[in-house]
Each structure stands twice: as structure tokens, then as C-alpha cells.
Specification:
This protein is α+β, with helices and mostly antiparallel strands. Helices cover about 25% and strands about 25% of the residues. The chain is elongated.
């Protein structure tokens, strides 16, 4: 596969997030937290649906033109499975 040119790389960026998970010994997800490596904790969750919602919210926030990571419009959407 050929290497992408400089123009192709200009439209891309790497995003890094940490998922801190607490699981029961049975493998059941108990709760967790999404942590942006630049902005710190961005959301807590209590189940799988909450985890995917929190990650999607973080990603939407990162892809906006917000001046500060973790402070775009998606960071303030209500969701019953996610805590801010």
C-alpha cells in the first residue's frame, strides 16, 4: 500500500482516550470512566450502553472546532447511562 501524501495526512489526527473499567470476576462491567489524555476525565458510566455513549460523546466533542478539548457541545448532552 503506498504511503499517503502530505495533503492526505493534513486532514487526519490521532486521538487517544483511556477507558478505566471496573468489572466483576464474572466478567460483568460494573462501571468505568472515559479519560482524555489531554483534558482528563470526561465522563463516567455504569454499563455497556453508557460506555459506548460516553466514548461517542467524547469523540464527537473532539471532532468539533471547540477551543478546548472536552468542552464542545457534545459534552453537555444528557444521557441516563452516563455521568459527567
Amino acid at each position: 500500500m503506498p504511503e499517503p501524501g502530505p495533503d492526505a495526512l493534513a486532514d487526519r489526527r490521532q486521538l487517544v482516550v483511556i477507558l478505566r473499567l471496573v468489572a466483576a470476576t464474572t466478567g460483568r462491567l460494573l462501571y468505568g470512566e472515559v479519560i482524555d489524555v489531554e483534558a482528563g476525565p470526561t465522563g463516567r458510566f455504569a454499563d455497556w450502553r453508557g460506555m459506548t455513549t460516553a466514548v461517542r460523546r467524547w469523540l464527537a466533542d473532539e471532532l468539533t472546532d471547540s477551543p478546548e478539548p472536552g468542552h464542545g457541545p457534545a459534552a453537555h448532552e444528557p444521557e441516563s447511562h452516563v455521568e459527567h
